[in-house]
Write a structure and sequence with these properties.
463 residues; alpha+beta; FAD/NAD(P)-binding domain; Polyamine Oxidase, Chain A, domain 2; protoporphyrinogen ix oxidase, domain 3; 3 domains; 7-stranded mixed β-sheet; 5-stranded parallel β-sheet; 18 helices; globular
Length: 463
C-alpha cells in the first residue's frame, strides 16, 4: 500500500486528493492518502455566502475561461450544469482618472491597443501616451536574456502613464501587488515572447488576429463561475473523497524524510508516508522543510505574499439603476484611494443577485489591505462607503455588508521568479517523494491551483 500525505486543504490540496482518488479508482492501485488541513473548513479561499438572495464570494468570484483546468475539474465532478459565464455583452471596465470614471476603449487587449480610432479618441490617455502607442508599432524585435519588472517593460513600450492607469491597476486585481515588483517573464510571459519575436506588442497582437480562423465560432466568456458560488467547487471535490482521509483542525508541525519515506507530525501524533504533497503557501512549506533542506526552505520563504480584503455590499433597486453599466472600475494608486477595484457583480454575473438588488464587491490588497488590517469590519465598510460616495456619488445605506480578510494569501511573482523556481525544482529533486503545489509557483488563479495539485498527485502516485 502506497501512502501519500497531502498538507493543505485549499483547492490545490483538494485537487491533488481528487487526482489520487481517480488514479486509485481507474488503476486499482493499492494507494491511500491522508489530507491534513489546519483550519476547521476545507476549500481555502473558496468561500461563498448566500445573503438576501445574493451569492457573495469571500474569495475569488470566478476563473479565467481560457485556462481549462478548473472547468475540466468541474465537468469531471458532474458540475456541467452549474457552470455559468460572465455577461460579456455588457462588459465594460472603467478607470478612475482624476476622480472621474473613464471607460477603457474598445480594442485594448490587456494594455495593447489593437484598434486605433477608439484608443485615439479615448480621454483615458494623454496625447503624449497616444503618440507613444503609435511609435510602439515600430519597435524592433528584442531578445532579452534577463528578467525585468512589468512596470519597466510596459514603460519601455508605452510610457509611465500606461503603467499607472492600466498595467498596475489590472495586475493589482489579480496579484494584489505592484507592477514595479512583478516579473514580466512570470506574470506576462506571452508579452515577453511577443517582444522577442515582433518587437512591437501591437504588431504581435495584430499578427495573431490575422492568423485566427475566419470561421465564426462562438467566443467563450472571459470568466466562468458556478451558479451556487465558488465554494460549491470545493464541496463537490470533498463529496468525491473518502471522509476518513480528510483531517481538519490538524496542524502539521513537521515533515521529515525517514526510511525511504516521510514522517509527518501533526499534534501529538506522527505517521509514516511514502510521499508528501505540500499544498500550502510557500512560506509555510519553507518552515516545514527547514530542518531537512535549509536551502530549499530559504528559496521557498523568499517568495513574497500579500494580504487582501474583500468587501461585499448589497443595495436596493434604486442603487442598481443609478450605477453605470459594465463590470466595474479599477483605481490607480495615484488616485490616493485605499480601494483598488470594485465589481458590479449583478452585471458581471446576473445570476448572483435578484433583479431588485445591486451587489458590489470591493477589493483592497497589498499596502491598502495592510493599512486596514487592524481596523474593525465597520471601520473598513466606512472607508469603502466613503470612497464609493466620492467615486460614484453613492450615499445609500447598504442592505448588508460583509468583510473578508485573507492574510498573506496572494503570491507575488517578483523579478527573477522563474529562476527561483528552477532552483527550487533542482533542490526538490534531491528529496524523493516530495511534491509542491499551490499558487506560489506557476499561476495564482483557481485553474493554475487545480493544475498544480493534479500534477503533484501525478508525481507521487507511483514510486
Amino acid at each position: 500500500m502506497r501512502r501519500v500525505a497531502i498538507i493543505g486543504g485549499g483547492i490545490s490540496g483538494l485537487s491533488a486528493a481528487y487526482a489520487l482518488e481517480e488514479h486509485r479508482r481507474q488503476t486499482g492501485s493499492a494507494l491511500d492518502y491522508t489530507l491534513f488541513e489546519s483550519s476547521p473548513q476545507l476549500g481555502g479561499v473558496l468561500r461563498t455566502e448566500k445573503i438576501d438572495g445574493c451569492i457573495v464570494e469571500a474569495g475569488p468570484d470566478s476563473f479565467i475561461t481560457e485556462k481549462p483546468w478548473a472547468a475540466d475539474l468541474c465537468r469531471s465532478l458532474g458540475l456541467c450544469d452549474q457552470l455559468i459565464g460572465s455577461n460579456d455583452a455588457d462588459r465594460k471596465t472603467y478607470i478612475l482618472v482624476r476622480g472621474r470614471l473613464i471607460a477603457m476603449p474598445d480594442g485594448l487587449m490587456f494594455m495593447v491597443p489593437t484598434r486605433i480610432l477608439p484608443t485615439g479618441l479615448s480621454p483615458l490617455f494623454s496625447w503624449k501616451t497616444k503618440f507613444r502607442m503609435g511609435r510602439e508599432l515600430f519597435h524592433p524585435p528584442r531578445a532579452v536574456d534577463g528578467d525585468e519588472s512589468v512596470a519597466s517593460f510596459v514603460e519601455r513600450h508605452y510610457g509611465a502613464e500606461m503603467v499607472d492607469r492600466l498595467a498596475d491597476p489590472l495586475l493589482s486585481g489579480v496579484y494584489g501587488g505592484e507592477a514595479a515588483s512583478l516579473s514580466v517573464r512570470a506574470v506576462l510571459p506571452r508579452f515577453a515572447e511577443m517582444e522577442r519575436s515582433h518587437g512591437s506588442l501591437g504588431r504581435a497582437m495584430l499578427a495573431a488576429r490575422q492568423k485566427m480562423s475566419p470561421a465564426k465560432r462562438p467566443v467563450p466568456p472571459l470568466f466562468t463561475s458556478l451558479k451556487d458560488g465558488m465554494q460549491h467547487l470545493a464541496e463537490a471535490v470533498v463529496s468525491h473523497l473518502s471522509p476518513a482521509s480528510l483531517l481538519t483542525g490538524a496542524l502539521v508541525q513537521a515533515v521529515q524524510p525517514e526510511a525511504g519515506g516521510w514522517v509527518v507530525s501533526a499534534g501529538l501524533q506522527s505517521d509514516h508516508f511514502d510521499a508528501v504533497v505540500l499544498a500550502v503557501p510557500t512560506h509555510s512549506a519553507g518552515r516545514l522543510l527547514a530542518i531537512c533542506s535549509p536551502e530549499l526552505s530559504a528559496e521557498l520563504a523568499a517568495i513574497q505574499y500579500t494580504s487582501s480584503i474583500t468587501v461585499g455590499l448589497g443595495f436596493d433597486r434604486e442603487v442598481r439603476q443609478s450605477l453605470p453599466p459594465g463590470f466595474g472600475f479599477l483605481v490607480p494608486r495615484s488616485e490616493g484611494k485605499q480601494m483598488l477595484a470594485a465589481t458590479f457583480v449583478h452585471n458581471k454575473f446576473p445570476q448572483r443577485a435578484p433583479e431588485d438588488r445591486a451587489l458590489l464587491r470591493c477589493f483592497l490588497a497589498g499596502k491598502s489591505a495592510e493599512s486596514g488590517w487592524g481596523l474593525s469590519d465597520d471601520q473598513i465598510v466606512g472607508i469603502i462607503r466613503n470612497e464609493l460616495q466620492q467615486i460614484l456619488g453613492l450615499r445609500a445605506e447598504p442592505l448588508f455588508a460583509r468583510v473578508y480578510k485573507w492574510k498573506a494569501a496572494m503570491a507575488q511573482y517578483g523579478v527573477g521568479h522563474l529562476d527561483r523556481l528552477d532552483r527550487i525544482e533542482r533542490l526538490r529533486q534531491k528529496l524523493p517523494g516530495l511534491a509542491l503545489a499551490g499558487n506560489g509557483y506557476r499561476g495564482i488563479g483557481v485553474p493554475d491551483c487545480v493544475r498544480s495539485g493534479r500534477d503533484a498527485a501525478g508525481a507521487v502516485a507511483t514510486s
